[in-house]
Here is the input.
Amino acid sequence: MIEIIALFLIVVFYVIPLNLPVYWLCIKFADFLLETFPNPPFKFLLYISSDYLPPTIYFVGFVILFLLLYYLLSNVIRKSLFVFKNIDISKWSLIKYSKGQRSINLAARVLIVLSLVLQIFFKVIDIKIIVLSVLCLLFIFKELKPKKIKKDLKSEIKTEEKNEKKELAEEVGEDYIDFNWSYTMDALNIKKPIDFKASFKKGDKHIVQDEETQLEIEKNIKDFGEQIKDLCNLNGLDNYHKISAVYSLISKFKYKTEVYNKTINLQKPSETLERQEGDNYSLGVCTAAILRTMDMEVIELKIPLKDGQTNLALAVEGADELVGNYYINDSKQYFYCELKEDNSFRVGEVPSIYQ
Here is the structure.
């Protein structure tokens, strides 16, 4: 990412070039400081370094701008792209380790160092050139070793595995499973994740009728969904976040793409929770059952695939006041919800390919 920032700054300040008016502003700001602060100790220091004050302001300003852009790219843009577009720019750094590129980098370094030596020798040092040289030496011609990339990726994988183990369901005796997971409300992690804990009773599978919806549902699923609903209400979540919180649990289950036993398609929601795995249909039915116990209207949608098969998506109420391409049924807007093979999930507008 730092290569991208350095390249951006070089283009903006040295190709356009904005370094000339920026340096002129640094000179004016230095004059302002010298005239505005009559304080003897401060003025004494300024007069000693008056010749170097504009270059110092220019250099410090560049450092601040670089750090600001790095923060925005790594903490705002990167996370937004990853969450909303499924693009991880950290995995596509500028990796240069071919012989030709090594030769170019070596030649560039030699030329830059030589130009700096000549500046020092002839005493024509220009802070603008020095900043450009630093950007090139440290970032533009920086080589990333394959071993370092592998090490970073392994570190990320270990962290993800550790989080997965921490959030897996725990058996409590022979009758109960405790599900523990976290739900992050926003893409930028500004708000603290909400921790969920709900107990599921394995043996209580008899059918009951929901008083409000009049739908028949397994008793243990009803109790499980009501626990999640209470936690959502306690944290003041709207329908969008309630749906996402449920999907954040189901997305941790094993998504089976190759089903050797056809009976898996007939899994009841309680069986899916017990096994913590299922195909697209069983995971979707389980999600729908939990959402219904949370007093949300759910419509099951069969999405045709290219191979002639179908995927199960859900349309869940709560999008009436929103503007966008949401699923519509009887003049009512629903969130389009879908769990994908990579265990990512979508809650929001209908994808353009289905419109």
Summary: Confidence is low (pLDDT under 50) at residues 91-99, 144-154. DSSP finds eleven helices and twelve strands in the chain. The domain at 168-354 is CATH 3.10.620 (C8orf32 fold).
